[in-house]
Amino acid sequence: MKFFIDTANLDQIKEAQDLGVLDGVTTNPSLMAKEGISGAENIINHYKKICDIVEGDVSAEVISTDFEGMIKEGEELAALHPQIVVKIPMIKEGIKAIKYLTGKGIRTNCTLVFSVGQALLAAKAGATYVSPFIGRLDDISTDGVELIAQIVEMYNYYGFETEVLAASIRHTMHIIQCMDAGADVSTCPLNAILGLLNHPLTDIGLEKFLADYKKVNG
Ligand code: G3P
Question: Which residue CA neighbors atom 7 of ligand 1 most closely?
């Protein structure tokens, strides 16, 4: 399973990259706003900075909601850097835009996916990634991880190549559950990734190894 970091914060992206296990980055307009990035030029420069830090895919989201606007923005974003994947919302015009951009050889990430039917449409349009939002489903008493499992099963059954990118991950256990469900990618906040490191027996074991070493070596 690939690890993407779900943030536009450059320090966090660097920290995850330094760990050596980062496969990419996902952003969205809310995450960009959280970092205070505004204005077309600043947004574009920010995507370029992210691409300079990481080696993998960087999802950059369009803000248009009409077909013409989405393909124009999509083509501009894709031209910024070969690592850019154009993030398109799961709406009727979005499906048309994914189909069009795929035909032009531009990679896409279909975002705001909340059902297996939406995931089917995204795959049929040729999306590179589909992003089901599991945390937001959990928020409304619906099993987000179960949706990941359903989409993985459906894609495997029909042989779709679209990768299942579990998004809206809120905590470390979500990552484990998405791995269990067969997600191709988990995009996570940094603290959820770092949470994978933790085990009290590791800390106890290391403390004992070091104490035993000190006993005989001083
Ligand atoms: O990857 C999508 C993500 O940014 C949304 O997360 O926590 O706002 O539901 P959240």
Answer: 168
For the Cβ of 59 lying below 6 angstroms from any atom of ligand 1, the answer is no
Q: Is 186 helix (H, G, I), strand (E, B) or coil?
A: strand
Counting Cβ atoms within 10 Å, is residue 13 exposed (0-12), middle (13-18) or buried (19+)? buried
SS3 27: coil
Residue 190 tokens, joined: 């940094």
Does pTM surpass 0.85?
yes
Q: Distance, CA 201 to ligand 1 centroid (Å)?
A: 32
Nearest CA to ligand 1 atom 5: 168
Tens digit of each residue's pLDDT (9 = 90 or more) over 170-211? 999 999 999 999 999 999 999 999 999 999 999 999 999 999
pLDDT digits (tens, 9 = 90+) for 65-98: 999 999 999 999 999 999 999 999 999 999 999 9
Rounded to the nearest angstrom, the gap between the alpha carbon of residue 209 and the centroid of all alpha carbons in its chain is 38
